[in-house]
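Figure 3 (text version): structure tokens given as input.
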């Protein structure tokens, strides 16, 4: 590192870090300086096993050769092209390839730059669609408690994480929430999908009866709620949501920002659960986290509903300067190649049992009150320290980092979602390290 960049790195004040305890971090910084495959390297030269695929995004692992090469080549060839009234070939190639991956009829793709933007885009498309089919009274959006849909005003409005909402005013009006599906009394230590709780979908009926279906445009849920601490849907729950939405003319949106691109052992949760929504939001694994990009999938019916009126007119007044950015498209295409060549979109299915057994072997560790898993996702819930919620899990995070393991915590829950290239030996290493962390912390 040069002297000037070293000096700049020593000034930690200016960067207001996102979703971070800034003061704690700046007293004892944790810096990554490079990454390769399953590992990060820290500024002090230590290897850290990536138990979280960055932030649930580096599904192909880090600095994969094909992706690196594609991005390097792209920036020298076409650095930027406007996506409004102009195009570039890779945007169309990528959209067609993605549409072919999604179950029919989800065969049109709108590009964004993040999960939050994908969510806002899907909500806006849902509202505009209802209006376009003469259902303009359908303006209400329904989310779920403990849902995470990013940090835009649309996303926090339908989202259900209290701390992400309570300081930001009134948000969108006309939003209601179903209850969450977490039911530790009946489902603690379930392996895979919990047996109990399909009936929580009936909450939607209550909400529909309260507001009348003619006022409701869409329901949005994460098929597996990730950021809120990994809440696996009870058996039958998503099917029932689909049924109710279809019966009442309500669009169903799956937020697959985390579950998309192989996390559960199938390309999308939509395949895994065999439930087809009307819109799907994605981001993260689309480019394996290399370049920011999101994609919203919608049905051909939704797309073609907008394709009316004079042909010179814009059909949807929505889009981003960086929608379908050439670098992001190049990264996504190379990521999809890597997924295909290495069978990564179904690899989690092969590893799921091994992962589940390793994870649940931690049941006897101190303070563990629940363990949950599906595909290559895992969560360990700890008893909070009395009067100091989140502190125990945060201590685990800090200790794990010192011990060479990256985990994520939310509340007093440890969430795990390694890159899909993880080996069985690395799964053993991950749970071995975690066991010693859980045994070491108070
Ligand atoms: C389900 C879900 N939706 C939306 C988002 C927001 O994505 P981003 O941080 O890219 O805006 C996330 C991020 O974790 C997510 O898990």
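Below: residues designed for each position.
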């Amino acid at each position: 590192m040069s002297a000037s960049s070293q000096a700049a790195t020593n000034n930690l004040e200016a960067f207001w870090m996102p979703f971070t305890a800034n003061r704690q971090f700046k007293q004892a910084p944790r810096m990554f300086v490079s990454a390769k495959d399953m590992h990060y390297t820290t500024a002090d030269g230590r290897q850290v096993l990536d138990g979280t695929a960055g932030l649930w995004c580096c599904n192909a692992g880090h600095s994969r050769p094909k992706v690196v090469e594609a991005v390097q080549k792209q920036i020298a060839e076409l650095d930027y092209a406007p996506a409004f009234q102009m195009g570039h070939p890779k945007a169309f190639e990528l959209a067609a390839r993605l549409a072919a991956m999604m179950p029919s009829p989800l065969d049109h793709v709108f590009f964004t730059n993040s999960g939050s933007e994908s969510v806002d885009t899907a909500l806006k498309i849902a509202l505009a669609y209802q209006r376009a089919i003469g259902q303009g009274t359908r303006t209400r959006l329904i989310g779920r408690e403990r849902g995470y849909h990013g940090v835009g005003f649309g996303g926090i409005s339908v989202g259900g994480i209290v701390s992400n909402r309570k300081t930001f005013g009134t948000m969108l009006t006309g939003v209601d929430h179903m209850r969450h599906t977490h039911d530790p009394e009946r489902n603690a230590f379930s392996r895979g999908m919990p047996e109990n709780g399909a009936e929580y979908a009936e909450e939607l009926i209550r909400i529909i009866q309260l507001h009348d279906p003619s006022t409701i445009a869409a329901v949005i849920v994460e098929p597996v709620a990730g950021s809120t601490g990994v809440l696996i849907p009870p058996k039958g729950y998503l099917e029932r949501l689909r049924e109710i939405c279809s019966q009442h003319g309500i669009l169903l949106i799956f937020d697959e920002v985390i579950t998309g691109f192989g996390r559960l052992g199938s390309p999308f949760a939509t395949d895994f659960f065999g439930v087809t929504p009307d819109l799907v939001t994605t981001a993260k694994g689309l480019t394996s986290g290399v370049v920011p990009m999101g994609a919203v999938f919608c049905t051909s019916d939704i797309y073609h509903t907008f394709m009316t009126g004079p042909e010179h007119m814009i059909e949807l007044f929505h889009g981003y300067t960086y929608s379908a950015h050439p670098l992001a498209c190049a990264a996504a295409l190379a990521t999809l190649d890597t997924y295909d060549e290495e069978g990564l979109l179904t690899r989690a299915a092969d590893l799921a049992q091994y992962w589940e057994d390793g994870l649940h072997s931690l049941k006897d560790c101190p303070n563990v009150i629940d363990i949950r898993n599906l595909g290559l996702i895992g969560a360990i819930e700890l008893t909070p320290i009395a009067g100091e919620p989140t502190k125990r899990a945060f201590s685990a995070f800090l200790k794990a980092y010192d011990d060479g393991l990256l985990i994520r915590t939310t509340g007093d829950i440890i969430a795990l979602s390694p890159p899909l290239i993880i080996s069985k030996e690395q799964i053993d290493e991950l749970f071995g390290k975690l066991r010693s962390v859980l045994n070491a912390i108070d």
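Residues 56, 114-116, 119, 148-150, 222, 226-227, 255, 257-258, 283 surround pyridoxal-5'-phosphate (CB under 6 Å).
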